[in-house]
Each structure stands twice: as structure tokens, then as C-alpha cells.
Amino acid sequence: MHALEQDVRFALRVLKKNPGFAAVTVGLLALGIGANTAIFSVVHAVLLKPLPFPQPDRIVAIPHTPPQDIFPGRRTFSVSPANYYDWKAQSDVFAAMSIYAGGTMTVTGLGQPESMSTAFVSSEFFDVLGARPLAGRLLAKGDDDENRPVAVLSERLWKTRFGGDPRVIGSTITLNSKPFVVAGVLSSALTFPEDTRLWVPLTLTPEMRALRGIHDFLVLARLKPGVRVEAAQAQMNAISARLAAQYPEDDKGWGALVLPLHEDLVGDVRPALLVLLGAVGLVLLIACANVANLVLARTLGRRKEIAVRVALGAGRGRIVRQIFVETILLALAGGALGLLGARFGVRLIADAVADQMPRASEIRLDGAVLAFTVVVSLLTGALAALVPAWRLTRSDPNDALKQGARSEADAGSPAVRTALVVVEVALALVLMVGAGLLVRSLGRLRSVDPGFDPRNVVTALVSIPDEKYATPDSRRQFFERVLERVRAIPGVEAAGAISTLPLTDGGSTQPVAIAGRPAAKLSEQPEVAVRIVTPETWKALRVRIVAGRDLGPGDTERAAPAVLVSESMAKKFWPGESAVGKRLTMTFVPGIEREVVGVVADVKLRGLAHREPVAALYVPFSQMPTPWTYLLVRTRQNPISVIRSVEAAVHALDPDQPVVEAQTLEQHLGASLAHARFNMRLLSVFAALALVLSAAGIYGVLSYGVRRRTREIGIRLALGATSPDVVRLIVIQGMRPALLGLGLGLLGSLALGKALSSLVFEIRASDPATLAAVSGILGIVALAACALPAYRATRVDPTAALAEG
Questions:
Q1: For the chain, does the N or the C end have fewer beta carbons within 10 angstroms?
Q2: Separation CA 477–CA 465 (nearest Å)
Q3: pLDDT tens-digit profile of 337-359?
Q4: 768: how many CB neighbours lie within 10 A of its CB?
Q5: In this predicted model, what pLDDT tens digit does every residue of 121-130 receive, in sequence order?
Q6: Using CA atoms, how far apart are residues 198 and 177, in angstroms rounded to an integer?
């Protein structure tokens, strides 16, 4: 320990005498370690950190698995009430099981009305999570009866709206114009689903509990102690098979998947985060290679000092340890500086992914991230010292004491430094190809026609409470009057409404039966996306009617039931013939045969990356009025300026009705690309860092080489070599490892391209344009990095160089 303390003190003195070397090395390491710390903080919070519930590995989500002949490629589906109750009754591997659904409720009587994200849950919900109240109580058995309107508040809502007053427990608040008793408060750390502010009982009537074909709910369960996921899956498979045999009309082909809740939450983002973590790891390796080159050059510059120490009795192991100590101290300093930069980076990343990534609110620099930074700093320092230490063990210290002799280590070191440059360039190319693929992918996504014109369109969600607008007539009249007022706003060209915005991975789907064709079992009926629209919806979106007519004011509740179908649905259901005039029945609205009055052009309902057009059915709002809808307002003015006028039109009819998600349709379109844009930007930043670091590596090796070969260059110039000859010599020396690195990098980029396959759109890993462009950029940068050392070589004075020899 005393010897190590001496080594540390000596290392600090040496580094103090070489502030330039120390600053450059610490800066390089800070870039690599800081970037790794920032990305690891995201990976730790989202992928590695256990969910904040007791025994979280026992909590599972249980979605349906749909028939593949109806939903090809779709792995999971929401659950029907009847199946949930059968699962609960027939299974014995779960300690508790709960059904729930998400939605919103409007809080009034507390100042400005506000729409709040709400979870409608059965009474076992908090037992499944193992949650305990922060204040009061959570839901209890029987609370999901119709006569028990109670609510649980989130800690955030309790503190922001009620000032954390404990007296709110037991008081009454108004939700959707109905009184609810506040039962208790749930800690923010235990909030599920994420961002939920209210939990209220899910009340299902006996008729609703018997519904087997409607899939609108989610299911959570807690495994009994000792029960593994595989055992639970086997039992759910057996139950699903029994239900399919018992209810073939509804359940044929439907199964159940037992999925750990953590996997259910983060499965979609795992590939992107692992790719980013791998990318930032490559940046750190490049920084390590640069530092190894710097330390190697500096070690060779100190070979006489080291030889003297050996002559005075220092063992070779002590000298090697000294190199490791100095490099690790630099790495720890780089880690400390990188940690400061990571604090800023983590805030930026957390803000960028707040609405796109599960558990984003948990992203922070905590003890685990700090430990990661320390470990990475130590490993980075050791890795960077490895090559210089290895070269030192292969050299004879006595050679350094011979005047005018070049040491063995010095003679062999150019090959080592060149190999490090090859590695840097190869890794940089891999990262740049990855960034290039994501850039091209995002460009392809942006060029996809969404099927509508998003320019100058305002959209906003209006969700009215069932208790206040209980009848279809009241809902119909409210929205008709809202649209009438909106159309009167100056500059408005058209105003319509749709139940779910395009580019939203959600919305209702229903099976349909085609009139005149043999009746099929419910489980075998094809499902289509169902959207409820008002007149002028297609005018506001500028979507053309392909055949027939649009829905209009005459399609009222008293008129013959009518629908529009999408162009893809028309081709799928009535190939080679006109869909107009055909009739169909929506299975969940039985007894009503609807006539297809028009065919509308396809719209991207489920996102720009969804390649196959979605078969869609559009029902007139007047004939199926829902309590929620998205307004669509096309204006000749700046759409941002119209948002307040739209909100005012709603509040003029109902001052207690909040308007949420007010934005332009272009903003909504941009939000649908946010995840792809985030991945592209981060990987591009890492690729840029890799490019700079690899250029610095080439420059550093060439500069050192020029200094070593000063006498040789002087002799060449004295013997008649021209400046172009010298430039050619140095550039070839620098470009040789760069070109070798490009070749190796191209091979490595194919592996990265496969890892990116789930993140790119219509781009192959071996995309020639991307590979050529990235290779060209890196080649040009490498050539530029050779320029300054080559220029310096031409400035060598032959007389002075020969005199030094």
C-alpha cells in the first residue's frame, strides 16, 4: 500500500509537469466516459432497474394473442371482460388478478377544469402491484360496485391541487360531474400506469362482464410464490384451449401470453437502447485508442528516465505499475469531468424522451450510475495503459542509455500506433454507417405520404363526461354546436372531427360481416379499423373521395345507416367490383345493416412506418355519437393563433369542459417521428465524436512520426527530394492505416446494420449509397488529418536536421 501511495504521489508530480498532455488526455476520456454515463443512466432506469413494487418479478401482464389469420404479425391484443373473468376463475397460479383500462376524467370545482389521466381498475389492482397508500387507503374489495364512487389520488395531484393536505382524505371531489370520495393517496414511486393521476373503480355491469368479443381492457396478475412464468403460461394455454372449444364463436384462435410486466413495458425500446449503448461504447474504445497512443508516445519519450530508474534498482513490474497508475489517475479525472457533462446530457435526454419512453421520469444520475462511472473510468485507464505497458515489457532499458541509438521499443512502436489508428478508423466507420442508415431511414419516413395534408390544421381532443352527457342526443347536439361555432371562426375553411387521429397506434377495431355472404364465426370474421367522423372531416384533411359520396349533414340518426370505407378495404372485401352500394354489419353493433355510400383514399392510421394500408370503416358521428372526439380545423390563418379560438368555442357551450392536446396537425405528425429522430440524433452525435477522435488519432500518429523522421526527411530533401515528394510520403503513411480501417469498418458495419434492422425503414444494412457516402466523408477527413503533418514535413531544414544527427 505504501508503494502504491508513492506511485500516486510521483504520478501527480509528473502530470503536473506536463499539463498539456494531461489536459488533452483528460478531455478525450471525459468525452467517452461522459457519453457512456449519460446513456447508461437511461439504460439503467429503463432496462436494468427493477420496477418499484414489492417482488416486481412476480408481476405479469396477460394480453390476448390474436388469431394470426386475422391479425398476421400482431403478437398481443387487449382482453375481453368475459375471458378475464374466466381466466380468474379457472387459474390457480396467481395470487391476484386485475382488469383495468386507461382514460380521462374531468375535475371541476377546484378552479380551472382539468382533464386528468385516469386508470379505471378492479379492486384487486393494488394487490397485484403490492402497493401501499401514502395516505388513507387504496381500493378495497367491493369498491368496484356501482354504488361506491371512490378515488385514489396520485401524490403529484395531491400536492399540486390540494397542497398535500391530509384532510382531503374522506372529502368529496367532482369527477365528470359526479361526486367521488377521496379514499387515499398513492406514492409517486408506485404510480402505474405511468403519469396516471387518478384511480377509480372499474364498474362493469353483468351484461358487460359477459362480453367475449369486445377487446378493450388490460390485465395484470401477481404470480403465487414459487410459481414460474413458464408454469403460468402452460396453465393459460390450457385455459385458452378450453375456452376456444367452449366458445368457438368468439374464442377460436385466441390465446393468452404471460409476460413479465417489466418486459411488457420496455420490450419495444430495448433494441434502440442497446444499440445506443453499444454505439457509445465504441466511442469510448476510440478514445481509449487515442489515449493509448498518447501514453505510448510519452512513455517512449521517457525511456531514458525509465532506464535510469531500472539501473537504480526499480523492477520492471514497478515501472509498469507506474504507467498504469498515471493512466488510471487521468481516467478518473476524465470520469469526474465526464460526470459533470453527463448531468447536462441526462437532463436533455430525459426531456427529449419524456413522452416516448417508459420510465423516463426515473432517468437520473444515482448511485448505480456513479458506480458505473467509477468502474468505467478504472477499466478505461487500465485498457489505455495496456498497450504502452506491453511495449515496455518487450524493450531493453539498456538500449535507451546508449547515446545515439534508437531503442528497440521506439523501433517497434510505429506498428503498434498504426494498429491503434486502424482500430479507431474502423470503429468510427461503423458508427458513421449506423448514423447514416438512421438519417436515410428518417428521410424515407418523412417522404412517406400520410394520406392527408397536415398544413394549417389545428387538432384538439374534447372528451365530455358520460354523467353529464348521458344520452346519444346530448352528445350529438354538443359536438354539432361546437363545430358550428368553430366554423364561424374567421379564416376557418373546414371543421370536422374524428374519434382517433391518424398516425396513432391505437383506436377501435371491429369484426364485420358482409351482407350476402355466408355467416362466419366471430373468431373468423375479418377485423377492420373503425373511426367515427363528422361531415367536413375529409375536407379538413384534404383527403379525396375515390368513389361514391362523402358523408354529409343528411346522414343523421334518422337517415339510413351509412358508412365510408377506405380504398384498401374496398379492394380487400370487394376485389374487382365497386364497393359503393354494398352492405355490411358491424358485429358489435348487431342488427344494423349499413350501406357503403363512398370510398375514401387510404390514410396512414397506424404510423408512417406501417407499410400495409389499413382496412378502415368510417361511421357518421350522428349515427354513433361518442363522448370523445378530436376536432380537425383547417384555417387560412396561422394555425397556432386559432387554437385559443377553438378552445373559446368549446368553453362558450360548457365552461367546465377542458380542451386537451391542442396542437397543429404538423406537430402531431412530427411527434409520430420523435422516437426515430431521437435515435438518429444521438447516434449521429456519437458518430461525429468518433470522426473527430479518429481524425485526431491519425494526426497524432503522423505528427509523432514526422518528429521521429526529421533527420530522414532532411536527408531526402538534401538529396533532391521535392516538397510534393515529401507530402506524398507522409500522406501515404497516414492513409494506409486509414484505408485499412475503412475496409475493416465496412465489414463491421454490416453487423451493426443487422442490429439496426428493427429501427430503420426501407433501408438495407448494406445500402450502397450510405456506405459510399460515409466512407467518402471519413476518407476526406483522414486526408485532411494528414495535411498538417505533411506540411510540417516540407518545412524541415535539411542542414539543421543533419546537424542534429
A1: N
A2: 14
A3: 999 989 888 888 888 887 778 88
A4: 8
A5: 999 999 999 9
A6: 15
